[in-house]
Amino acid sequence: MHNKAVIVFSGGQDSTTCLIHALPLYDEIHCITFDYGQRHRAEIEVAQQLSKQLGVNVHKVLDTSLLNELAISSLTRDNIPVPSTNSSGEGVPNTFVPGRNILFLTLASIYAYQVRAKTIITGISETECSGYPDCGDEFTKVLNNAVELGMDYKLRIETPLMRLDKAETWALADYHKQLDLIRYQTLTCYNGIKGSGCAECDACHLRAKGLAEFLENKIEVMNRLQFKLEL
């Protein structure tokens, strides 16, 4: 049987690391990038470039602009400033886009049904999720169960980074000999700046902090990664 996977792909550090991790494991990979009118929409072009560079079989960009109309967030509204790391308060940050992962994973599941793929891969992580409620393991499992029941189709939502911190995610990129690609060619920044980004938003802070920890303690972080991959 042809082994297919569908990857929710933004061109950021996490989803690109998931892609390079998946490439040797599947015969056919389909990437889906969502255009929801996001502030950092430069990520769409970055995702297209990366998927082509890495030899992805199929890459689709889906229009989900309805999300922009419904979900109020600093990532969907230009008049709401993206907070700097030191200005974020308690609770869910204003960079949270309500329902984004629910919608993306549901649409990816419908697409997987059509192409008869049994695996969906997403880069969400509960250890480095910026306080977002839709990045936890319980959320993913419940949604996985719901889409299986709703379509009467067996599929698995894989979350390779769920238990990894950002340093370990960098280690995974290095394990696959793609550290430089992830470091310089991905776009994680909420302000749409590739590579190291703006150095002010929460996404850039988490990325830079993880990279610094990995570069300072490579052996220790790699050992932690190996332990988690073997679990």
Q: How does the SSE layout of this entry go?
A:
Layout: E1 4-8, H1 13-22, E2 28-35, H2 42-53, E3 58-63, H3 66-70, H4 100-115, E4 119-121, H5 137-151, E5 156-158, H6 166-175, H7 179-185, H8 202-216, H9 218-230
Stretches where pLDDT is under 50 for at least 5 consecutive residues are none
Average pLDDT figure: 91
Alpha-beta classification = alpha/beta
* Order of SSEs: EHEHEHHEHEHHHH
Shape: globular
**Treating each run of at least 4 consecutive H or I residues as one helix, how many helices?**
9
Helix content: 40-55%
Number of strands: 5
Sheet with most strands: 5 strands, parallel
Report the sheet-strand fraction: 5-15%
Q: Provide the gyration radius in Å.
A: 17 Å
Q: Please report the distance between the alpha carbons of the first and last residues.
A: 27 Å
Main sheet: strand order = 3-2-1-4-5
Keywords for this entry:
231 residues, alpha/beta, 9 helices
Description:
The chain has 231 residues and is α/β, with parallel strands linked by helices. It has a 5-stranded parallel beta sheet with strand order 3-2-1-4-5, sandwiched between helices. It has helices at 13-22, 42-53, 66-70, 100-115, 137-151, 166-175, 179-185, 202-216, 218-230, and strands at residues 4-8, 28-35, 58-63, 119-121, 156-158. Helix 1 (13-22) links the parallel strand 1 (4-8) and strand 2.
